[in-house]
Amino acid sequence: MEKRLNGILTLFLVFMVQLTFAQDKTVTGSVSDEAGLPLPGVNVIVQGTNNGAQTDFDGNYSINTANGQILVFSYVGFATQRITVGAANNINVTLAVDAAALDEVVVVAYGVQDKRTLLQSVAVIDSEQIADVPSAGPQDLLQGQAAGVQVVNSSGILGSAPVIKIRGVGSISSGSRPLFVIDGVPLNDANQTTGQGGQALNPLGDINPNDIESMTVLKDAAATAVYGSRGANGVVLITTKRGKAGQDTRVSLDITTSWSESTDQFDMLSGDQWRQFRVDTGKEDNIADQDQDSFDWPSAVVRTGFSKSIDASVSGGSEKSSYYLGTSLSDQEGFIRGNELKRRSVRLNLNSEATDWLNVGASLNYSFNDNDRVGSENSTFAPLTSAYLQRPVVTPFDEDGNYVNTGFIANVLAIEDLDINDAKTTRFIGNVFAEADIFFDGLTFRTDFGVDRVFLEEQERSFEINSAGGYARNRVAQQNKWILTNTLNYNQTFNDLHTINGVAGISYEETDTRQIDVEGTGFLSDKLINVTSASDFSTTNSEGAGSRLFGVFGRLGYDYDKKYVLEGSVRRDGSSRFGANEQYGVFWSAAAGWVISEEAFMQDVNWVNLLKLSASYGTAGNDRIGNYASLESFEGGAISNYNGNSGLRQLSAANPDLKWERSESFNVGLSTSFFSNRLGLNVEYYNKKTSDLILQVPIPFTNGGLNFITANVGEMENKGFDISLNTVNVRNDNFTWSTSLNVGINENEILSLPGASIDDQGREFVIGTPAQRAIVGESANTFFLIRYAGVNPETGDAEWLDIDGNRTTTPTANDRVIVGDANPDFVGGIRNTFKYKAFDLNVFFNFSVGNDILIDGLRFTDNANTGSFNKRTKLLDIWQQPGDIAYVPSPSSPTFASFNQASTLQLRDGSFARLKNLTLGYTLPTQYLGEDGFFSGVRLYFTANNLVTFKGDDLDGIDPEVTDTIGSLGQGESFFTAPQSKTYLFGVRLNF
Amino acid sequence: MRKNIIFLLLISVLGFTSCDDELQLEPEDQLTLPVSFSNKETSLGVLTGAYSAAQQDDVLNGTRQAIADWMADNVDFVGSFPTFQDISAFTQLSDNTSIQAIWDDNYETIGATNLVIKYVPTVEDLDFTEDERAVAVGEAKFLRALVYFNMANIFSQPFSVTGGSNLSVPLVLEPFDAEVQFPSRATLNEVYNQIELDLMDAAAVLGDSDNSRASKGAAEGLLSRLYLYKGEYAKAADYSNRVIQNSAYTLATDFSFYNTQDSEFVFTLVNTSADGQDSGQGFSGLYNPVPGGRGDAPFSDNLIAAYGGESSIDKRYTELNQVGNDAEGNERVFTSKYPDGVTNADNAPVIRITEMYLTRAEANFREGTVIGDTPLNDINKLRVRAGLAPLAAITSVDQILEERRKELAFEGHRRMDLLRVLKPLRRPGMDDVEKSNPGDNKTIFPIPSREVDLNPNLVQNPGF
Asked: What is the ipTM of this complex?
């Protein structure tokens, strides 16, 4: 009996013990990173079950599990850890940063994607590449940083607008700028400032570069088709900085001081040299009879500009919310006298988990720019232009030291010191969103409401000394946009093999512009500032316009085991800009890829981290065709009135078939990464054909006197390679050296221009400038000039080549031939980063090879004959006797007065490599900050911009990076365009 | 579950909105065609716009008239303006830009009148009465007829030479409506017939309230000019008489009527400094001496002799001339009918009653009739006003033609007045006499080369 009871008891014990084994228990612990800081939000899952928890604000977790089960700890950016539950009830975990996983996610249109399975052609510029770089705007940050993106600064004037081309020139007569989107809000970018002889200011100059976390450039149709009628020129997505939930508050204060100087200036004759030159060329009899004054104008209009800025930001978060507050104040002085720019901006980004299924957030930005402008280029009120043209015997002051009026070539010292010329821009950009997990796992619904309001005020007042009778102008221009976007996002993986991600959405936006201009002359006193005091109102004008866009879009991607990837997208856009017969357009793309490195046969090849082949094809559109271009226009006003009665006249023809310009692009790419991501190489080939280019096709005058119809008729092609190479050359405890190189090779060709004028060789062409055309069979920016052959050493005559190649001293317009191309063969940048202990050195070159530039101002500075303008010192090289090799022909030659005429004499090879950025920084080692130090980081840095430029020998005093127009035609020309400035900056960054 | 239903409702509301209406955005600073003809005011605005188009210098404001004068014997060409110089030497080519501009601007005016003629009857506005619509259409038809008449006279050989079977200008009677047209040239007869039809329609409905706009008198006056050029003298006498009998128009007593709306004018185009001659190459810019004008168009010696030379007592010379420098700096005699060389505000004299008297006299003389009055009385009225002794009798039509020359000099008539009576444009001893005979190739303009290149249906004039 006792024995049986023992057996039962033993069984019972065993049973009890077994139950004990199988019994749930609660395991707790904390998760921290390698520095010992707690990690909130870490996912803790019991493997193989749906049982999961998250670490709290202090990194602590608590989960129901059982011995023998495996807990999986995972967190974005960190290597996942698996720990088997043993007897202990307390498990603390340290997670290590996963270097490769940090780049896991890429921001794309309307969502994010896994980098390893990404098929779209994008270039990402992250915060490391843009930190410490003083820049004027987001376009500056793109220069030389992304393969296939060419940025050309148009002028050294503060706030000037750069030209951006993604994969070549996108259009002829419609805009070719890419679309900029910041936190989901497409930005207003109409040029509303007046040119003042040059071109308008940067319409994106109000975005504070220090607020930018990263930028993604969308290049091919697979990436941009979902932007539909606005994607043809590429899209730049800007993501601004945000706080992290549960993060300690971080305060950052960045203080900089910088000074800037001019890089390149022409060397002009001094007063003495001028007087001697006039005698040597037979224009004056002797020196003593001439005006004896001397003044160095070119030096007087430039200066060393001192600038300072303060950027302060606070970011942090609680368990469920996070915020980022960034402010920036900067006062910049340009190297041109009278040019200053004050910028103020504030940004507040908020994120909050309102409930466990609802996230809300806002991104708000307010900025104010006050630009004290200077004229530029084709205006005698422009400092650099007038300083070069002004004869050195003219002085800006009289004997008593008062300013004088110097006539047609204005006294730019008086203008910049006395006159008012301001452009003030106030901008508010905001986006609020709500994101909800709905219905079933993996599906979220998101609604975004965004606003972009730009308010510009320009004020000019030219006082009596500069404009007889005084002159005042005031202009107010507004661009207001609001946009509502609703999207459904779905991301889910089934059976660990099939991943589906998709987005479907609807978007509607309205943009309205309005402007008011008033001008007046006839002021009794310089103390009367505004137009209200004028006696004669030469302009009173007010205009308004707008556009509407409604889009429906979707994108669906599928990958099998991260190896085989497919993606397609489609968008249907309706725009108020399109003609009544073409109100809606459909754009689509399809892409496929093979991630070879995920295949089983590649698992043992350890030195290959990523090997991916992808190809895509799709369509996109360009809607920069004008707001009402498809409608006929009856206009009133002075031209339509008769004998006191108001009238209406039809001034343009309707085209109800007018629509977007369309691009079809094909892209194939190879992405690789080797040796634990120490070597990364991406190579892509693209072919983009743009058709339906808008041209003005002439029609017979018998059609109501209307001279042309605006129609979609032209065709153009861009093709080339985008290559980027990233290497970590040396990595050890004290020293790392990494290199990043990107090259964009592009060839642009015009395919057809129906209805355009035909030249003597039978080719259709569209004129960009007197020296540049878009010609069928050539590029859109082809230089078309007479060839200059030099001064004949025997005769002292200047000679040119006629159309047949024979020398002549009397060329005509019929002798013009194709002589060059303003588009480069390739552009790019190379960055080398060195880190040695606490020091870091960043050397960044950008380059452009194969582009020609036309220095149009040389027609004036090299005019040997005139007594009205100053000349370059190069003109002292005059032919005197047979055998001389000289620059200027003999004064007695019939070509003396004509040798400076428009020809290849002003054309140069504009290839260059520029040390755009050199940064040396020192980060104070943590031991000096102290245990409970007030600062958590201190960094000092010194940056030099545009320090050295390697360029052609014949570019002395000429900056090769210029363009005096931001339109598609007429690139690469300079008419006294201000050069880029050399800037030295010293900064301190304090983190708290 | 309730949450999901709410989401479903939210998505369906936000997701299925359509914005078709929003995409039909109307511009704020320009009107489309349907809006321009949506009511009476805007429709009459388009008619005003047609007059405004006619104010372009090469339509009614002088360029065309001056070029015609340079081809004839009243005016010398002085200076270097290349397109004008070529025409005055009968060497013009089909790519002459002044001729191209004339074609462009005149067809623009025709286009504006076509819009009014087609759409005014369709305007939906109860305040726009049938009579008002008929008057608007009548005004547009007059303007269209006037412009076609001017165009036919320079781009095709005259009726007197060909009888009207030659090719003239394309007859475009429909406004532009988004589809580009490539019309071929109509014959001179077809053009003249359309002009006659339009003027008859206009005369039937117009009144005579404002001589700066089309009127019954203007329509009938232009008809008399048309019949005169066609050699239909009986009708010419009839219609010129109707205008003379019209109480709205009377002969001025002296020559101070220029640049006013005196009842001497049957139709005059009113210009101001802010709204009128626009290119510096209209009446004021071309006919004035330097510095106000270009100094390109002084009296020819032949014309001065026609008035009786330096010792003339003809007030049409003595009161209407000014001495000044020409484009080459030499002192010459110029007309002072358009004295405002500074702001170019002078009016264009299009039809005046004096022309009616001259037409009636000539037509009556040729037909042997005395409709309204005898030719002798008509001519003497004009001679007495000019301070000359009246004639005892008219023995030759040349006397009437001489008076016409002296009255209407510098008003755009001389060239056709010579060609319609088959006289050479130049007098013996003048330059290029041999190229100035009626029917010579370069006494008319070429069709602009741009038009011939763009429109394969156009046949170019011989010799170009």
From this structure: 0.91
Per-residue pLDDT reduced to its tens digit, B191-242: 999 999 999 999 999 999 999 999 999 999 999 999 999 999 999 999 999 9
Shortest distance between the Cα of B460 and any Cα of chain A, in A, equals 14
CA–CA dist A647, B47 (Å, integer) = 7
Neighbours of A870 (CB within 10 A): 28
Q: What is the mean pLDDT of residues B244-255?
A: 94
Cβ contact B274–A638 (<8 Å): yes
Q: By the CB < 8 Å criterion, does B46 face chain A?
A: yes
The shortest C-alpha distance from B241 to chain A (Å) reads 29
- The span from the CA of A578 to the CA of B274, in Å, is 37
| Å between B111 CA and nearest CA of chain A | 4
Give the phi and the psi of residue A729 in degrees, each rounded to 5. -75, -45
Q: Does A646 touch chain B (CB under 8 A)?
A: yes
Task: Name the token pair of A719.
Answer: 């093709």
Residues 434-453 of chain B with CB under 8 A from chain A are 448, 450-451
Give backbone dihedrals phi and psi of B44, rounded to 5 degrees, phi first.
-65, -25
Our CA-based measurement puts residue B212 at a distance from the nearest CA of chain A, in whole angstroms, of 8
Count Cα atoms within 13 angstroms, Cβ side, for A348: 5
Closest CA to B161 of B427, B462, B363: B462
A611, A528 in Cβ contact below 8 A?
no
- Percent helix, strand, coil in chain A, to 5, is 10, 50, 40
Beta-carbon contacts of B76 under 8 Å, excluding residues fewer than 6 positions away, are: B70, B297, B298, B299, B300, B332
Interface of B with A in 373-432 (CB under 8 A): none
CB contact under 8 A, A506 and B30: no
> How many angstroms separate the CA of residue B399 from the nearest CA in chain A?
38
Q: What residues contact residue A170 under an 8 Å CB cut-off, 6+ apart?
A: A176, A232, A233, A234, A622, A663, A690, A718, A968
pLDDT tens per residue across span A444-470: 999 999 999 999 999 999 999 998 889
For residue A717, give the nearest of A784, A779, A624 by alpha carbon.
A779
Average pLDDT of span A398-406? 90
| Cβ pair A222, A568 in contact under 8 A | no
Please answer yes or no on whether B48 and A641 come within 8 Å at the CB atom.
yes
Interface test with B, best of A443, A553, A634 (most B CBs within 10 A): A634
B36 near A CB under 8 A: yes
In three state form, how does the secondary structure of A18-80 look?
HHHHHCCEEEEEEEEECCCCECCCCEEEECCCCCEEECCCCCEEEEEECCCCEEEEECCCECC
Residue of A580, A639, A649 lying closest to B112 (CB–CB): A649
Nearest Cα residue to B276 out of B352, B346, B349: B346
CB contact (8 A) between residue A640 and residue B45: yes
| Beta-ladder partners of A345 | A328, A367
Q: Say which amino acid occupies B31.
A: L
Q: Alpha-carbon distance A577 to A430, whole Å?
A: 25
CB contact under 8 A, B48 and A574: no
Are B240 and B363 within 8 A, CB to CB?
A: yes
B 162-191: CB under 8 A from A:
170, 172, 175-176, 178, 180-183
Angle between helices B130-155 and B40-54 (to 10 degrees): 20
Give the pTM.
Answer: 0.82
Greatest CA separation found in chain A? 146
Sheet holding A807-808, edge to edge: A787-791, A798-801, A807-808
Q: Which of 325-364 (B) contact A at CB < 8 A? A: none
Let me know: does A289 contact A275? Beta carbons within 8 Å.
no
